[in-house]
Amino acid sequence: MVRVGVRCDVGVRRGIGHVMRCLAFAEELRARGVEVVFVCDSPTVPWVDAQLSGRGIRVEPAVWTPGEHVEMVERLNLDAVVFDSYDLPGEVFSAVRRSGVPTLAIVDGELRGADADVLVDQNLGAESDRPVLPEGAIRLAGLDYVLLRDEVLAWRPVEPPVLRPSGVPKVFAFFGGTDAYGAGPYVVQALAASGAPFDATVVAPGDDLAKAIAAVPLAEDQRVQVIGPTSQLAQAVVESDLVISASGTSTWELLCLGATAGLVCVVDNQELGYERAVATGAAAGVGTLAQLKADPAAASAVLRTLLTDAQERAQLAQAGWKLVDGRGRVRVADALLQLIAPAAT
C-alpha cells in the first residue's frame, strides 16, 4: 500500500487551518486506497486531535530539523510527503526532496522557502501570480485546487442558492478552531451595534471568549447563543442566512457551500485573500479585526445591510457557489499520485 506523510502546522496560536485542509486532502487519498500518516502536534488542540483519531488516522509527533525529517521518511517508509507549514525552514523541504521521495507543498502566496515537486496555492487569484519556482517544480494555483473536507462536499447545494424567506436572519459566526486572536466578542459587538434583529450562534473555543461574548449588551430582538467547536460546521453554515468568519482557509468552504459570507481579516497574512474575495463580489468585507477593535461603526454598517437585505445576501451566496466547484482535491491528488506511481515501480 502507498503511504503518504503529512507534515503540517497546528496549535493554539497557529490555529487549525493547515491541518484541516490537509485532512481534506487525506480524505481524498484514503478514498483511493492510500495510507496517510500525520506528523504534527495535534494534541495541542484536542478538537483537532479528535478529528484525526476519529477517522483512524495515525499521528506522529512533529519533528523540526532537516535530518529528523529525512529520518522520519525512512522510519515511516513513506512514498511521498505533503507539507503545509509556515513554521518550517526551507532547508527541511529541500532535504526531504533531495532524499528522493515525491513532495507536495501547500502554500499561500509567498513560498516561504517551500521546495517541492508540486506546489499548491489554492487561493483566489493565485493563478495570476508568478513566483519563482524551485527547479523542476510544477504549480497548481487558484480555486480549482481548493481542498475541501467530506463534510463540506456532502453539504454543498446541487443548485445555486436562492432567495430565502424573509424573517429574523439566522447568523453563524466562527473564527477557526481556536479563535486565536479573539475576534468573536468584537464581531458580536458590531452585530449588536447594527441595530438590526438577528438570531446568532457564535463558536467560542474557550471559556474566556464565551464569557466575553455573553457579556455584550443586546437589543430585545437580538439573540446570541454561544457554543464550543462543532463537527457539524457545514450543516450550520448552510442552515444560516449569514456566516461571519475569518478570511482564512475556511473562506473557500463558505463559498463552496453557497453561504452569504461576511469576512473579517484577523491577521496580516489574510489581507490579500480578504481583498481578493471581497473584490469578486462573492463575499462581503466586514473589516479587519484592528478596525473592529478601534471602532465597530463601519463593520456595523456592513452587517446592517447584510442583515436587512435578503436580495444582497442571495447575490453574494450565488456568486460564491459558482467560484468553488469542490473538485480541487481530486485534481491535486491526481498530480501527487502521478509522481508516486513511477517512484513505486
Brief overview:
The chain has 345 residues and is of the alpha/beta class. Helix content is 40%, strand content 18%. The protein has a seven-stranded parallel beta sheet, with helices on both faces. A six-stranded parallel beta sheet has the order 10-9-8-11-12-13, sandwiched between helices.
What does the model show?
Strand 11, helix 9 and strand 12 (261-265) form a beta-alpha-beta unit. The model has no long low-confidence stretch (mean pLDDT 93). This protein folds into two domains: 3-148 and 326-344, Rossmann fold; 152-323, Glycogen Phosphorylase B (Rossmann fold). The protein has 14 helices and 13 strands. Helix 1 (17-31) crosses helix 14 and helix 3 packs parallel to helix 4. With 345 residues, it is α/β, with parallel strands linked by helices. 40% of the residues lie in helices and 18% in strands. The longest helix has 17 residues, at 328-344.
CATH superfamily of the largest domain: Glycogen Phosphorylase B
Sheet having the most strands: 7 strands, parallel
Q: Any idea what the radius of gyration is?
A: 20 Å
Low-confidence stretches: none
What is the terminal-to-terminal distance? 12 Å
Strands of the widest sheet, in order across it, are 3-2-1-4-5-6-7
Q: Strand share of the residues? A: 15-25%
Number of beta strands: 13
Number of domains: 2
Q: Any idea of the CATH class of the largest domain? A: Alpha Beta
